[in-house]
Amino acid sequence: MAVGWYLRFAFSYRNVEELLAERGLSVDHVTVWRWVQRYAPELERRLRSRLDSTNDSWRVDETYVRVKGKWVYLYRAPWTPPVRRSTSFSPFLNKALGGENHAAPRVINTDKHAAYPAAIVDNR
Fold this sequence. Notes:
Helix 1 crosses helix 3 (29-48) and helix 2 crosses helix 3 (29-48). A hairpin with a 2-residue loop joins strand 2 and strand 3 (70-73). The protein is mostly helical. It contains six helices and four strands; from the N terminus they run H-H-H-E-E-E-H-H-E-H. The protein folds into two domains: 2-48, no CATH class; 57-123, no CATH class.
């Protein structure tokens, strides 16, 4: 149960320790960390096959985050020089296409940003 709480919710090891204490179990947060290290890979292996596959039509959208007071796209690495920013979408697409439960997309719908066509061609 403790490992499940840690993996499913945004709890810290100390939060899980407190939840267990409320239920009368005295467990140190380091013990919870050890349980997560031991049992999380097995839980992922067992649950991975139950995940639904994605659709073959993907829609790519951006999300803004604030970095040092400036709004930037999440997928564009703000620490890369502007010349290389157009290729910074490629690693994110690479990771998304590498998932076991993701079918190869038949079509990828994007806006007209210059980083998309090159990254899509490179990752197909």
